[in-house]
Amino acid sequence: MKLLLLRHGFTDWNAEKRIQGRIDRPLSEVGISQIKSRRLPETVQQLTWYCSPMLRARQTAELMGIQAPIIEPALIEMDWGDWEGKILKPLRKQLGDVMRDNEARGCDFRPPNGESPRQVQARLEPWLKKIGSHGEDCCALVHKGIIRCLYAMAFDWDMRGESPVDFDWTQLHEFELDAEGKPRKHYHGFELINKS
Fold first, then answer.
1. 2-194 sits in which CATH class?
2. Residues 59, 64, 70: CA angle, nearest 5 degrees
3. Over the stretch 127-172, which tens digit does the pLDDT of each residue have?
4. Fewest 10 Å CB contacts: which of 158, 166, 171, 189?
């Protein structure tokens, strides 16, 4: 089965390059305009949609015309703990070797009082198993961290170093799951339809 993931639209913190995590920021005017300028292919819009409980994801779903998405707690963004609201580049400079060593841990990277990508993957697994058992293509409105974690699961990427894929965060991200909900080695990104 196919699982299609769409990232939420931009917030003011995205523009400022701030770590959002669980901070529930609304879409910015730029984000709203971005979402309103695109539409989903009709075949995708008719599928079952799941959605992160975060406001930015729910607003995106509404603006995309997704009717009554199923709110799924497992799809919430990674918890960045003490680093939420901070900007990564100055944080790296401030923390130096401590940050470099932490980032070198890949899937086990963990912000203080936050969550690691491996913990995100662990909370995704029961949901993936549930939708995999249904065997029907579906979609979800999620966050950058969720898409990266699913990609890492599919391709056994340990999340060390640069991403093997240059993700376009405005695209739909297509994955495949087997009947047990395990991601297969398949990934494809494709554009939404421009309304203009």
1. alpha beta
2. 65
3. 999 999 999 999 999 999 999 999 999 999 999 988 999 999 999 9
4. 166
The predicted-structure confidence for 6-32, as pLDDT tens digits, reads as follows 999 999 999 999 999 999 999 999 999
- For the entire predicted model, the pTM comes to 0.96
Selection from 125, 140, 129, 138 nearest residue 2 by Cα: 138
What is the residue extent of each domain of the chain?
2-194
Distance between CA 38 and CA 12 in Å, rounded? 20
For 106, 109, 120, 144, 159, the CA distances from 102, given in Å and listed in that order, are 8, 5, 17, 19, 12
Q: Give dist(CA 10, CA 122) in Å, integer.
A: 27
Residue 72 buriedness (CB in 10 A; 0-12 / 13-18 / 19+): buried
Token pair listed for 146: 């969720």
How many angstroms separate the CA atoms of 161 and 134, rounded?
A: 35
* 53 alpha-carbon distance from chain centroid: 12
Residues labelled catalytic: 8, 77
Contacts of 32 (CB under 8 A, 6+ apart): 9, 59, 63
